[in-house]
Design brief:
mainly beta
Length: 114
């Protein structure tokens, strides 16, 4: 099981970014998936989760209305569209299964700063 996150970068407050998660080593369409993030000095936290057919499981309260999780089972890829970004969204973002965590990928750095 492998996850490779990409698409992070530096963005100004109020800006947008879409990050991607390429998954391999398992039958992607059979698994619920999730996005986590970890800010410096803080624990990793769940941001959003999506079921195997694209239904939303949950969003973290602080990102509701700003972030949208989605997936393309034909491409074995999951996405996180992030709008109205805030400095407190700065973190390394990771993807993983939802209910049973596997080894983490490298993550992608998202920095929100002016």
């Amino acid at each position: 099981v492998h996850f490779v996150e990409s698409g992070g970068g530096l963005v100004q407050p109020g800006g947008s970014l879409r990050i991607s998660c390429a998954a391999s080593g398992f039958t992607f369409r059979n698994y619920d998936m999730s996005w986590y993030r970890q800010a410096p000095g803080k624990e990793r936290e769940l941001v959003a989760a999506i079921n195997n057919i694209g239904g939303i499981i949950k969003y973290r309260d602080s990102v509701k209305g700003r972030f949208t999780i989605s997936r393309d089972n034909t491409k074995n890829t999951m996405y996180l569209q992030m709008n109205s970004l805030k400095p407190e969204d700065t973190a390394v973002y990771y993807c993983n299964w939802y209910n049973l965590l596997r080894a983490w990928g490298p993550g992608t750095q998202v920095t929100v700063s002016s």
